[in-house]
Write a structure and sequence with these properties.
342 residues, single chain, 10 helices, alpha/beta, 18% strand, 5-stranded mixed beta sheet
């Protein structure tokens, strides 16, 4: 079986071909970061238009790289939500058109499920059950994962996600977009402990997150004035440390509360090296096993959508052959997903 995956939820156009028997056959990805950078964030209309320009050429190139033709595709998976409505509609329209032309089953995939399952694409994948931290620009959630579609929400952010804290703080510091990599680069020159920022809900006794106050603390520090470039680097270093400290503490609390020994970190912020190092140190002290997606799969990509589609189909989801219309779900809580085959 060969599954074509199409991802267009936000500012990356991703296409991939995956086979359960042969693995990832080919993928193509175009990032819109350069286009959105001058606006300091994603402009939805520009994102949608760029997806229209990119998705079919990327599909052709992926097929060429894999040595396949359109007729070799057995099923088509696309990101149905959550995400920007206009961007999602581009992927849905292309996927539906291809499914109708090829008379192949079509399956809509939850964007966060794609991220959640992406570490299973690695050479040493985790086995179920595990605790997962979904950490990105729009989401910071802890989930218990017992199988494909079997997700229990353990904790969520009450306001800003960790990625939003990075992005908004980067803007306050006059850095580029996306904020995570920009903050990390500046933080590398900072002095740990040179300034102090709060660790929101660090000792709350639950698994909830809150990062809006951290962003406000950065704003206060900037308004008071930063003496020089070193002070900016020190603030970036402290911001990154504060976010990582909270994420690590909540992850370890979730592992303890569930009694599980496997922890998966997924989403764009999972690429942060400070977070990887901190969780690596935590795992070395106990029986905890920590899994991250491959660096290339941390951002939005078609591979995770094709892979999730293949897992859903293998687990009993039939997809749909009724392609007379299509719909997207810009807002779609992950814990509302049903287990495959139900």
């Amino acid at each position: 079986m060969i599954v074509l995956g199409i991802e267009t939820s936000c500012d990356e156009t991703g296409v991939a071909l995956y086979s359960p028997e042969r693995g990832l056959l080919a993928q193509g990805l175009h990032s819109q970061v350069a286009m959105h950078e001058r606006f300091g964030g994603v402009v939805p209309e520009l994102a949608s238009r760029d997806h229209i320009r990119r998705v079919l050429p990327l599909t052709r190139h992926a097929l060429q790289d894999a040595g396949l033709a359109l007729a070799d595709i057995d099923a088509i998976a696309f990101t149905q939500g959550p995400g920007l409505a206009g961007a999602l509609l581009v992927g849905a329209a292309v996927a539906t058109g291809l499914a109708a032309a090829l008379q192949r089953p079509l399956i809509g995939i939850h964007h966060l499920e794609g991220h959640l399952l992406s570490p299973l694409l690695s050479a040493s994948p985790p086995s179920f059950p595990f605790v997962a931290l979904l950490v990105s620009g729009g989401h910071t959630q802890l989930m218990r994962v017992d199988g494909v579609g079997r997700y229990t929400l353990l904790g969520d952010t009450l306001d800003d996600a960790a990625g939003e804290a990075f992005d908004k703080s980067a803007k306050l510091l006059g850095l580029g977009y996306p904020g995570g990599p920009a903050i990390a680069a500046l933080a590398a020159r900072g002095r740990p402990g040179a300034c102090a920022l709060p660790r929101p809900l660090l000792h709350s006794g639950d698994l909830e997150f809150s990062f809006s106050g951290l962003k406000t603390a950065v704003l206060t520090a900037v308004r008071k004035g930063l003496a020089d470039e070193q002070a900016r680097a020190d603030l970036a270093c402290e911001l990154q440390s504060a976010i990582v400290d909270v994420l690590v503490a909540k992850c370890l609390a979730a592992v303890r509360s569930t009694g599980l020994t496997r922890l998966v970190i997924a989403g764009g912020v999972s690429a942060n090296q400070r977070l990887r190092d901190a969780l690596g140190q935590a795992s070395a002290k106990g029986r905890l096993q920590v899994y991250f997606p491959e660096p290339a799969l941390c951002t939005d990509n078609g591979a995770m959508i094709a892979f999730a589609g293949a897992l859903r189909l293998a687990a009993g989801s039939a997809g749909t052959t009724d392609v007379t219309g299509f719909s997207v779900r810009p807002r779609w809580p992950l814990h509302e997903l049903e287990a495959a085959g139900c």
